[in-house]
Amino acid sequence: xAGIVVVFxxxxxxxxxxxxDLVVQELGDTQLFNELLPTLPFHILMDxxxxxxxxxxxxxxDIAECLKRAPLHPRIIAxxxxxxxxxxxxRIISDANTFFIETVLKHYGLMDxxxxxxxNPCLIDEEGKLRILPYHDSxxxxxxxxxxxxxxxKGLVIERIQASASVEGKKRIIYLGDGRGDFCPSLKxxxxxxxxxxxxxxxxxxxxxxxxxxxxxxxxxxxGEELERVLxxxxxxxxxxxxxxxxxxxxxSLDCKFETIPTSTHENSVxxxxxxxxxxxxxxxxxx
Length: 288
Ligand SMILES: [Mg+2]
Ligand SMILES: [Zn+2]
Description:
Blueprint: E1 4-8, H1 19-27, H2 30-36, H3 42-55, H4 60-67, H5 74-85, E2 89-97, H6 98-107, E3 114-120, E4 122-124, E5 130-132, H7 154-167, E6 172-177, H8 183-188, E7 194-197, H9 202-209, E8 217-218, H10 224-258, H11 273-287
Parallel strand pairs: 1-2, 1-6, 2-3, 6-7, 7-8
Antiparallel strand pairs: 4-5
The structure holds magnesium ion and zinc ion.
């Protein structure tokens, strides 16, 4: 079953905290952070904080050690492994950065479960300082989305995933997130996709306030146990639906063989996908 792409946000979705807050609180100057917060775009502020942390004599290794203390619910680890074992293509879209995300995933042995991590890139400069760069270069190519910060429009990333996934024959997306930045991509999901907002978090509130804007079906979750239960239920439902569609294809092909169509024109018995999809849905509705 390779028809499902599961897209995770990272902070407060995969991990049970915000990795930027964790590093700033444990290693940085929270007072300076709070002073600069209203004045700087967030990714520039985080880059600045990495500079501050470096100037206090703290190393990349100190940052990594801090990140390894990011809590990750055991049921979320299990959910990631189960979804992967069921053949889903797992990806991350996050406004954190490659260093933070990869450090945490490697620590928990989860790096190989994800086919793609879309986030702000990092580099370590000649002084050994961690630099955080914007995902989109807003100076040369502004993304033009009014919902998203200049450095990253997650909706644009979802559109790229939708385009490449449909070429690969992957039809459905399940998106999990908690933050304001997860609202834009949730609006881009299609009918037949699923949005899993974390209950009582900003994206859940935005969705509750604008239910008519959503084409995807919405399934909330609160904690690791519920995330696992809802996610595996949705994957299971999609796979039952896809199996009944493919059984129907086989039935139609057999019927046609036994009826009047000679084997030389056998390819005529294959229905075009849009018709199949409609019939499959009706069959599912009848079966319920
Ligand atoms: Mg988040
Ligand atoms: Zn956007």
